Structures are given as C-alpha cells and as structure tokens.
Queue: 3 jobs
Job 1
Amino acid sequence: MTAEQQQERRVPLMVLAWAWVALPFAYGVYELIRKVTQLFTG
C-alpha cells in the first residue's frame, strides 16, 4: 500500500474526528450566544 493510498483512507477518519469535536463545540457556542442574548435583553 502506497503512502497516497494510506492518505486517501485517512480522509474519512479525519473528517469524522473533526466533526466529533467541531459539532458539539459549535452547538455549545450557539447555546452560549442564545443565553447571553437572553441575559442582556431580558
């Protein structure tokens, strides 16, 4: 197996790993913004 084939096999894994971290983080930021706006606007 060449290095290029190994790289191609890792792409879905890297996408999954980034999504595993980025999606909950993005949701947390979204909720934070909602709560902060509620705090300051009443």
Job 2
Amino acid sequence: MTFPSRFFRLGSALLLAGLLTACSSQSNPDARPPQSSLEAAAIEAGVISDPANTDPTGLYSRDRDKICVVPSATAFRIGVYVDYGNDYFCSGSGEATRSGETLRVDLTSAPGCSFEAKFDGDRIAVPGALPDACQKACSRRASLAGLNVERLSDSPSEAAALRDGRGRMLCDVGK
C-alpha cells in the first residue's frame, strides 16, 4: 500500500461518514433539538425534570398569581388566577391539552381565549401576546399575558382546591 492511497481511503471513509450523518439528521426535520450533555446529565440525576415525561398536574404559583391543572376525561382542566390587587384581577377556567412542551389552553369561561403556554416540567409560561378574547377573563386593565408560574405541588387535590378571589373553584373536577 502506498502512502497516498492510505490517505485516499481514510479521506473517503471520513467523507462517507459525514454524508451519512448529514442524511440521518435530515430524516426527521420536526425532531426536537438534542439536549446538551449537561441538561441530559441533570435530568438523569433527577436535578431537573424531563419535560417530555412530566405530568403537568399540580398547583403553580408566583406571588399571588396561580394556575391549577388537574386531569379530566379529555385531557386536563386548567384554572388561572392573577391578582394585581385593588380590584385588578383575572380569573378563568377551561381545558388544556399537552403536546411535548406545549400546553394548548382554551379558557371556556372566556370564549375565544385560546393560546399555547410553554411547559418545561416545573414552570408554565403564558405568552406575552394573547387574543383579545382573553380580556374577558380580566377586570379593568389586568391581563393574563406574560404570566409565569412555578410548580408548588403535584397533588391533584391541592390543585383542585384552588379558588379565585371571589371564592370560585377554578379546577373543580366535578365540572
């Protein structure tokens, strides 16, 4: 074997490996980007939740703002309460379905208020821009937009007990 032919074979092998890698990464364009090794290690160690395998059932809160999520016959029942104080608040309930890291929320108490919230296993983040219909769930200039809450509990019974400022149950499983 001569010196140039050895490099030719090595170069050909590397080129073939590169082409196979490029082809295989394009076979599923909708695939979720791979986790970083640090994120994967943290999930494996239990330091952070794996959002792909975490049930969103529970009670979420930040200050006086709360979201409850409980299982229902079709997917999940969800309730949202935002309290700005001084009669500025939002309160609504409805249904949610989950697809990966997305919760598709339909607040049936405010017809036409549907949006996709981000769910990462420990937090729910409502987008900063919502349909105008979501204002039906709010008083005065209060808004649900940009609400970001963290999980307090994964207990369905604690979540089902959430009430808004007027005493209405938001995730009542009897509804």
Job 3
Amino acid sequence: MALTAHNPVAMAQDKAGNDTSFVVKSDSGSNVAADSAELNMVSDTDLADGEEVAVEATEAAGLHKELKTRFIEGSAGFMSLVALALVLGLAFCIERIIYLTLSEINAKKFMEDVDAKVEAGDIEAAKDLCRSTRGPVASICYQGLTRISESMDNIERSIVSYGSVQAANLEKGCSWITLFISMAPSLGFLGTVIGMVMAFDQIRLAGDINTTIVAAGMKVALITTIFGIIVALVLQVFYNYILSKIEHLTSQMEESSITLLDTIMRYKLERNAQ
C-alpha cells in the first residue's frame, strides 16, 4: 500500500486531474469576466450618449440665458430701444416681402396671352385678363389698353406715368427700413457714450481709478454697441433682398411696357390697313 501511495503513475494522474479542474475553472472565470466587460462597455456607451444629449440641451439653454443676461447687463433702457428698432424694422421688411412676392407673375406668359387677344381684336377680353391678374405689370397693361383708341404718344405717356406710380408703390415703406438700419447702431453708440460717462462719474465718486468700476462701465458701453450693430446687419440683409425683388419687378414692368406698345402698334397698323 505504501508503494501504491508513492506510485509515480498515480501521482501523475492525480496531478493531471488537478490541472484539468484548474483549467476548467479558469475558463469559466474568463467567460464571466468577458461578459462583465461587455456590459460595462454598453453601459459606458449609453452613458456617453446621454451626456452628449445633456450637453446639447445645456448649450441651447445656455445660449438663451446668455443673451438674456447680456441684454440685462447692457442697460435695459437702451437695449429696449435697440430691440424695438429690430422688431419694427423686421415688421416693415416682412410686409414688403409679402407684397412684392404677391406682385410677381409670369410676365412672359401674361404678355403672350394679351398679345394673342389683341391680335384677335378682342380688346375687352384683354382688359378682363389684365383686371383679373394681380401685380403692377397687369395694371400697366390695363392702362395702355384703355387708351388704345388714342394716339401712340398718349398711350406711351400714360404707360410711363402709371409705371412711375407703380414703381413708387413697390418702394413704399423702404425709407422706414433704412431709418431703423441707421438708428440701431446709433442707439448702440449712444449707449456706449452714456456708459462711459457713468464710468467716469463712478470714478469721480470713488476718488480713485478702480479697474472694477472702469470695467463695469466699459462692459455696458460695448454690449449696447454690439447689439446695435447686429440689428443693423440683420435689417441690411433683408433690405438688400427687398431691393433685388424691386429691381426684378421694375425690369418686368419695362419689358412688358415695350411689348405692349409693339402689340398696340401692330393692332393699329392692321386696323388702318383694313
């Protein structure tokens, strides 16, 4: 029995068995560790996504809060005037954009229809078409057709005169937009000057040049200037867009007037030939 206990073969088998059980245990432990790592990675990913959403929401709220804070810091009196200039200027811009957009038509197609009716001798149908069509082009054509029985000089004079009236209607309200474009930075500069005066008054009362006092006055002055310039830039963009639409409509009116005069001339020549 002593020999059996110290048998090398038995000892080797026992050692192999022990090693096998150790390996199995080690493998199961590795699988558990891998699963835990994957769960941790998923949790970290979800956490990162949640943090990004929270950061974006914080930035949006922070921008709104920052603008509100800067508005209050820039002296509510002058900042309110700058904001009022922005609101009124945008109101005039939106009104002009809507009016000009509704005034636009397909001028070439419209003039082709008018030309076809005039050549057919149906002047009343051409007038009805002009009355039922919106915009300055149709109005000018209607004025020319109402004087078709008169001389060409009178017709041309009537078209030119009424074209000037329609061009003035297109530019109605633009002077107010330019006023607010000029007022916004002027109000900002006024706030700057008053902020500097307030800073010097505080320095005089303190009896010493304190950087904190100077910085506070300068901050109010610069904030009003910045907001005034921003308002002027915004209104200037809308104003240039309005001018481009006015130029487009004016060119349509000129082209349509020339086309109408040619149509009326051909109509009169045909009538005289008959």
